[in-house]
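In response to reviewer comment 3 from the previous cycle, which asked for concrete evidence that the modeling workflow produces usable outputs, we include below a single protein chain processed end to end. The sequence was submitted unchanged, and the resulting structure tokens are shown without manual editing.
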Amino acid sequence: MGIRIDKISVKDLGPIKSFIAKFGIFNLIYSRNEKGKTFLTEFIIRSLFKNINRWRYLREGGKGRVIISGLEKQTIDFSPSSQKKLEDYWESSEKGLPISIAKLLVVKGGEAGIENGEGISKFLIKEVLSGINILDKIDNDNNISKTVKQAEIDGNQISIPQRGEGKQYNDSKDKLESIDKQFEDIESEYTQGVLKTYKMEEKSLQDKLAHLDKAKRHETYLISEKIKELDTKLNNIPEDELSKIENELYLYKSEKESYNNSEEKHKSALKESKDFKWLESALPYYKDLSSKIIKKPGKSLLFVCGILAVTGIATAVALIFFHQKISTTIWTAYLGIICFCFLGSLVSSLAYIKKFYNFSKQSGQNEELNKIKEEFKNRIGKELTDIALLESTLNKQREFNSKSSTIEEQIYGHNKRLRELHFSINQKMAGFIEKEASEQDWDTALKNLKQNNRSLRDQIGKERQELAKLGVSETDYLSEDIGIRYSQQEYEKTQSELEQIREEIKNQDDKIQKLKYRICEKTRDDPSIKWEELIENLRQKRQEAQNELREVTANIVAGFSVHKVISKLREEEDTKIQEGLQSEVVLSPLKDITQRYNRLALNNDRLIVSDQYDNFGIRDLSTGAIEQVMLALRIGFTLKLLREDALFLILDDAFQHSDWHKREILINKLVDITKKGWQIIYLTMDDHIKGLFDKVGKEFEAGKYNSFEL
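The workflow returned the following structure tokens.
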């Protein structure tokens, strides 16, 4: 897993009042001139690295932190005041990364160089390509003396000049041999000289029993304190408060369910009454138009008119043909019939003409009625046949409209109670957990709190059982820690051993007087000296001599071995450096980025780059070329050190002196190394570079390219 910068947050940093950014794999921070990008770079350096003198002057100030992932399972916060920096993690890791790698990772303020005026030192090259510089420090005369370096070791035999560590070694060896000879004399003549050892063991066992007893009393004290602590924790989360939260949570869920049901009903009512307003406005208009409607005159009037006309004509014809044969009375009747038929026909014709005229005048009203019927069918899906259907449909939707208003009031009430319960639950939860719990986490948080209380009660029960087993009165509790743990098995074992030792001492006391004079003759002590003191004095001297000889021997062997290994490695140093400079992992970025230089070499302390025609010292290159070479070396050296691992590169206007064509190549190379897991954070005030980054940033997945502006 690569080491990445996940987030940076700062405030009051030079011109930067506040800046917070979460980073992806490819990142750009853009700012106008004097807006604080170099301040931000310096803040990152002061937060992450210990040896900040590598970057010369760095300005102080600002507050914030830099969050790093990949060092441990959890993310780690760094700030200028952090005691532990990245170098500390690298020194303690198994990778053995040199602390100089820090200078490879950051370009500040457009400074192309990595270390010295030429851009990079031989020390760093040695550190990256051979690692011998670390061994040089170890092999220094201050660490491994010349005497040790001149020693010869053959098996267990050490031959070393008689000075310094050599003299100390030989003196310690002679001293130990002398003491061992004295013990051999004592053992050969005084086989019962173990009495002192027995008494020492007796005293030791007595002390051990006393210590175990104190440890037992201290153990009971610790258990009682732990019970108090657990009781305090249990009381901090009262069960009745958890019950209140549980009840409120139940009410909240019930209220929310009612709220959701009301919402569904409201949506349904709105759907059922969606045409209410239209129907309400259409009904009176439809009624008005319907009341004024005149039906098209039927053919009955024309039929009546025709009958009367035919009848009148027939009567007139009959009267003409038969007027001489009929009486005056009949003639008068016929004449009356003719007049009636004529007048009836005339009236029927006039009535039909008037009705047809009135019918023609209302054609516009019929068109409006047809529009209403057509709209009704589009909205309701039925044919509008009469006012009754329109009124019934309106009444039905009026009922749903009224119902939706009622439900709205219910929803308002539900929502109000939900907010009150939400606030109350959040307030109570906040009293028990450090962070605010979201609504979906309430059940889990409550479950965890209840589980925690059950665990606390279980722990308290177990601790009380342990306290009862020890059987110590509360007045005998001991708060002082004597440095050992109580064990009942160890206590019983010590008691048994003490009884055995006392029996042995009793047997040996009878013989001690016979042995004392003979021992004093060998040790040249005054015969009045106690046996215990005599043996103890000699034992202590032998222990001291053994420790002294062991330490001197270890120092000589270790120093001699390290010196030999370093001497052999030093012979291979120049070859390793040249091979490293010619390795593909170092040269590949150089070729890709510069599109010109294809070789590297170290001439004394000067780094030389070459193309197919000539060799050049770093100081002889243009500023833009130095930028390109230094970026290539940063990438090549870090890849050489890390192999499959990945880190981050922080580049503060590292390409500002490169021409526009080279800038595209440089940025594309940065894109390439992100594919190997590297994280890029580039800071610039150059609009062209910003445009190039935004262009290539489109190639990345969402969230992997981030652009910020100070």
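Residues 387-430 form the longest helix (44 residues). We consider this sufficient to address the reviewer's concern, and the full set will be provided in the supplementary archive.
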